[in-house]
Write a structure and sequence with these properties.
single chain; about 180 residues; mainly alpha; about 55% helix
Length: about 180
């Protein structure tokens, strides 16, 4: 898919060494699980998480997991059934886009992608083994402690539109 897209916008993908290697590795299931639990533990009593706080938490989580050797990649929360549902919902838009750009249907352009099988590795869908669960609990305790320190720092809690997660994410109109 990437090769086709790059070619469409006028770039010759052969100029990149190892162009078939995926270069944007996302965080993994361990990282996602720790982040979820920390977010759930943050008190929501009228004080939403600020952007600077969220950024600091994200940085500290990455540093902690790397330092402890727990950093991971390749999270997949998508099941094949959900992927097929999403594909059905977006099929007409995708086909219209593909027809206008490539003159061919989306399914033809991305045939291998739309038939891809997905196996979720999310710990909320497939609980971890006891050893991983123990490491997960330890990481969550450490990150909850760090998050508490971060949330207590007044310099990160500045009341300003630029420091509002909802505004920065586009969830609230900037008008």
């Amino acid at each position: 898919m990437i090769t086709e897209f790059v070619r469409t916008i006028g770039i010759n993908s052969s100029q990149f060494r190892n162009s078939e290697i995926q270069r944007n590795e996302a965080v993994g299931l361990f990282t996602v699980s720790v982040a979820r639990e920390v977010l759930r533990a943050i008190p929501q009593a009228g004080k939403p998480l600020k952007w600077l706080q969220a950024e600091r938490c994200k940085k500290e989580l990455a540093v902690h997991l790397k330092k402890t050797g727990l950093a991971d990649a390749r999270y997949c929360g998508l099941s094949t059934a959900l992927a097929r549902h999403i594909e059905r919902q977006l099929r007409s838009d995708n086909d219209a886009f593909a027809q206008s750009i490539w003159g061919r249907p989306w399914g033809e352009i991305f045939a291998t992608d739309v038939t891809e099988e997905f196996t979720p590795n999310d710990f909320e869908m497939r609980p971890p083994d006891w050893f991983t669960a123990r490491r997960l609990r330890r990481a969550i305790r450490k990150m909850n402690s760090l998050a508490h320190e971060i949330l207590s720092d007044p310099e990160l809690a500045v009341e300003a539109p630029w420091n509002d997660v909802a505004h920065r994410s586009g969830y609230i109109s900037r008008e």
